[in-house]
């Protein structure tokens, strides 16, 4: 099969694989591709959820959503949308995945997954499924799905509509600083801001972890600079014969150095935890593409 980079407004041709281009969401319209610089979802652009959601909205029961190895849970909400519209869900067996977090999240949060199989079985399974007829009837796209799909397309009328899904939360959007609306449905916690940035609970927690680390590095730098500057002031004051001021600046330098050392230990502990998690998850085989949609005739 031919694989091509997705181009905006390109007509969908049978037997061709369309791959999202860097920093642009890959969406589907009726009969053609939409490649757009929309709001990030789950800290990524392109993201899996907007693609699956758009496919479910337009093609309903003809869609087959596939989630492979991957970290975090981007794609789980989109796979739920596919199932809600009557499509099929395929998930790689977590025991067979290089990174089992994503397929395991799909198993945990998506009801009635149609197939949980090892990677080597997915290709033949798709060949068989696309030759079968899709159901004629389909579940209607609900209002929430319609609105979220339009937000990903940067539809101004939807973005400016004050009737937002969910309820305002106490958290702000890490991307733009706006209020995040909590979109809790069943057991999958999600958030979306006014202009469309979206996070699962896991993705938001990961973003907060990174923000905390950035804050620690900034504090470490500031304290190191403060200590160095105070020592220079102490030396200059001592040379000028101001011993009291020199001692005061030296004490300030030592306090800043002690605080910097404490923060340094926190940063090293964070790095050690991340390194340990990476070693536990890594394997020798190369990683696979995390998601791909297919359509039945």
How are the SSEs placed, and which strands pair?
Blueprint lengths: L1 E4 L10 E4 L5 E4 L4 E4 L11 H12 L3 E5 L8 H9 L3 E5 L8 H9 L5 E3 L1 H12 L12 H10 L3 H5 L6 E6 L6 E4 L7 E4 L4 E3 H39 L3 H39 L9 E5 L2
Parallel strand pairs: 1-2, 5-6, 6-7
Antiparallel strand pairs: 3-4, 5-12, 8-9, 9-10, 10-11
CATH homologous superfamily caption of the largest domain: Methylesterase CheB, C-terminal domain
What is CATH's topology name of the largest domain? Rossmann fold
- Bulk shape: elongated
Helix and strand pattern: EEEEHEHEHEHHHEEEEHHE
Tally of helical segments: 8
Percent helix range: 40-55%
Describe the structure.
This protein is of the alpha/beta class. The protein folds into two domains: 140 residues, Methylesterase CheB, C-terminal domain (Rossmann fold, 3-Layer(aba) Sandwich), CATH 3.40.50.180; 78 residues. Helix content is 45%, strand content 17%. Helix 2 links the parallel strand 5 and strand 6.
Q: Notable features of this structure?
A:
297 residues; alpha/beta; Rossmann fold; four-stranded mixed β-sheet; four-stranded antiparallel β-sheet; 8 helices; 45% helix; elongated
């Amino acid at each position: 099969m031919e694989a091509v980079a997705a181009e905006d407004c390109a007509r969908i041709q049978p037997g061709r694989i369309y791959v999202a281009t860097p920093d642009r969401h890959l969406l589907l319209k009726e009969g053609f591709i939409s490649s757009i610089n929309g709001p990030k979802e789950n800290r990524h652009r392109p993201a899996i959820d907007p693609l699956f959601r758009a496919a479910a909205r337009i093609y309903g029961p003809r869609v087959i959503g596939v989630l492979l190895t991957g970290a975090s849970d981007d794609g789980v909400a989109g796979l739920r949308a596919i199932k809600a519209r009557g499509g099929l869900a395929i998930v790689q067996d977590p025991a067979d995945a290089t990174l089992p977090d994503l397929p395991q999240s799909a198993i945990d949060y998506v009801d009635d997954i149609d197939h949980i199989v090892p990677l080597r079985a997915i290709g033949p399974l798709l060949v068989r499924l696309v030759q079968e007829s899709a159901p004629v009837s389909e579940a209607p796209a609900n209002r929430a799905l319609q609105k979220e799909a339009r937000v990903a397309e940067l539809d101004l009328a939807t973005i400016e509509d004050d009737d937002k899904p969910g309820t305002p939360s106490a958290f702000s959007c890490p991307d733009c600083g706006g209020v995040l609306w909590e979109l809790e449905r069943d057991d999958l916690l999600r958030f979306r801001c006014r202009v469309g940035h979206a996070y699962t609970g896991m993705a938001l927690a990961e973003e907060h972890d990174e923000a905390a680390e950035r804050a620690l590095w900034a504090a470490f730098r500031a304290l190191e600079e403060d200590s160095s500057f105070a020592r220079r002031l102490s030396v200059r004051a001592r040379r000028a014969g101001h011993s009291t001021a020199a001692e005061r600046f030296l004490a300030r330098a030592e306090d800043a150095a002690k605080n910097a050392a404490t923060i340094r230990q926190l940063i090293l502990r964070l790095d050690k935890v991340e390194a340990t998690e990476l070693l536990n998850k890594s394997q020798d085989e190369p990683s696979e593409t995390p998601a791909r949609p297919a359509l039945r005739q």
